[in-house]
Amino acid sequence: MPTDETPSAPARDALENAEQLVSAAGAHARPLREIIALLTEGPHTLASLVRLSAVSRRGVEAVLEAVGPDLITGEDGIRLRPDRAESYRERFGYQQLRRVRLADPLAPALERHRSTIDEMDRLIAAAPRGRQALDHVSATAETVVRRALWLDATFDLSGAQLLCAGDHDLTSLAVAQVNTGVAITVVDVDERILEFIDEQARRRGLNIRCLFADFRFGFPSAAKESADLLITDPPYTPEGVALFLSRGLASLRDRELGRLVLAYGFGERQPTLGLKVQRAIQELHLVYEAILPDFNSYAGAQAVGSASDLYVCRPTSRTWKAFDAPARSSAPNIYTHGAQSLEGANAALDEPTIEALRTAATGEQDLPLAVLADGWQPSFGNIGHVRLGTLMSSGLPAAITRQPSFAVAADLSADPGPWLLRVLLAVNAERVVLLVPGEHPDVAGETARRELGDLIADKYALRFRRNEPDSRYALVEAALVGAPSARLTRQLLDRAHGKIGNVWRDGLVRFSRDSARGPMTKNAARERIQLTARRPDLLEATLIELPRGRIRELCEEAAASLENREPSKP
Question: How many Cβ atoms are within 10 Å of 395's Cβ, its own excluded?
Fold first, then answer.
């Protein structure tokens, strides 16, 4: 009969299996030893083992398979049998592991900011759920505060401009709480994230400006050459990393001293993927000033060990000759999941769907027709074919807008959500018909349809045709409104690519001519705008760059300024 001093054959085999696995890793076995050490200390879930060891899920599972006979499972997770734990500690040098472990230089600062970590934990829990199609995996609350503390200790943030290129894990809110003297701009494609950050910053009086952009189609003009420093946690594909860094370069106002801080990681079994991403970075001729290993931890991303490194990149003189190259294509496939992943479908529409779109757009009036489409070449459209990137960045070409009256057929079948509103803002046509996914967030629910219709009501009257031409899609018909109830709002909606301050000023001057008080001068209009606008820092942006909630507020502010009244509270 076996005793505690004489392990059973299965237990002995488990220990030998683990030793073989660790020995095979040679000098690189420390992460595997760390997993075993964690299992001797107490129960863990698979996710916590991945996160604490920074080893991929597959790597952790290999260790668990090796020691399987010596594991016990309880409500709190898995651990090594207490009667076997000491044997594993002796065999795999537990004391040496703990003795030589380096101290975390940020640990004292993190302890002082425990209340900030708790606050960020609450904010992350309250934030909109991540979208897998946009590669959203939230960093832990401690990680975002760690980023903030590291940035504050490494750079002079007070009085500086920080740009967050994507911010689903709310790094901006952490940095703004750690250092209230930094001005932060967040640029993101997810309207929900922008609205959440905007509202939380408003409540706390934090200096954060939120702008919309889909980096595949451009970068906000209001954020160009504005930042001293950029931080980003992009999609972990070569195309995604290169695109986000390229847009980040466009944001730097000092070409010599600006820095790009990048979170990126790859699994220990995926060095080839890491090489591809680093090659994409090198094509921008950026120099690595630092790579801080396993700096970031995530609630997920187990394929990369729930961890990523922090890269500090600096442009060189060659960077500025090459930084536009990765961003020239507007191909949607930069992500690792979903229809817009590198492996996702990017096929043209089938013929019945194309014909349904054409028929709906042409209508009874048989208007001249322009086509908005990426990924396929339309065989119809007698006044032009426009790509989405062109429309988002500069609007319709003059060859189309010179037409006295025309219609637009828009293929938005790949729209992740925000394109529909942006196209309605960017296009000024007698009739627009837009093909969107059947479960589009602006179409699927009655409340969402009503809110979109109300927002654009002074420009277009909308009709939603769900399940047309089939259940995969919906058609949105937009008919131009002839006599808007709010003329200044209409001017803002019509000139979505113009600077808001200029469009608003020109509208006040134009429409005040009909006022009993008489016409306003440009100077008087500017003064009125400064008194009315809640966010004067957004006046240099364009309407198409604003988050949806800010567009709604701005239209109300503009209407109030024309009537010389206080705008209603948001």
Answer: 20
Tokens read off for 324: 């536009």
**Eight-class DSSP state of 382:** T
Q: Which residue has the tokens 């507020």?
A: 553
Q: Which helix (H) or strand (E) holds 200?
A: helix 191-204
Strands 229-232 and 259-264: parallel
Alpha carbons 477 and 361: distance in angstroms, whole number: 8
Question: Which ranges in 44-162 belong to alpha helices (H)?
Answer: 46-53, 57-66, 82-91, 94-100, 107-112, 114-126, 141-154
Q: Residue 81 to residues 4, 50, 132: CA-CA distances in angstroms? A: 11, 20, 37
Token couple for 188? 């993101």
CA–CA separation, 391 and 498 (whole Å) = 13
Helix or strand or coil: residue 105? coil
Q: What residue spans of 395-536 are helical by DSSP H?
A: 398-401, 419-426, 446-455, 487-494, 500-511, 522-532
Could you write out the DSSP letters of every residue in 497-533? TSBHHHHHHHHHHHHGGGSTT-PPPHHHHHHHHHHH-
Cis peptide upstream of residue 469 (ω within 30 degrees of 0): yes
DSSP one-letter code for 396:
S
Splitting the chain (570 residues) into consecutive groups of 10 residues, what average pLDDT does each group show? Answer: 41 84 93 94 93 91 93 93 93 93 93 97 91 75 97 97 96 98 96 95 96 93 96 92 93 95 91 93 94 90 84 94 57 61 63 92 88 87 90 94 94 93 97 96 94 96 95 96 83 96 94 77 92 93 96 93 75
Chain centre distance of CA 266: 19
Backbone angles phi, psi at 328, to 5 degrees: -70, -35
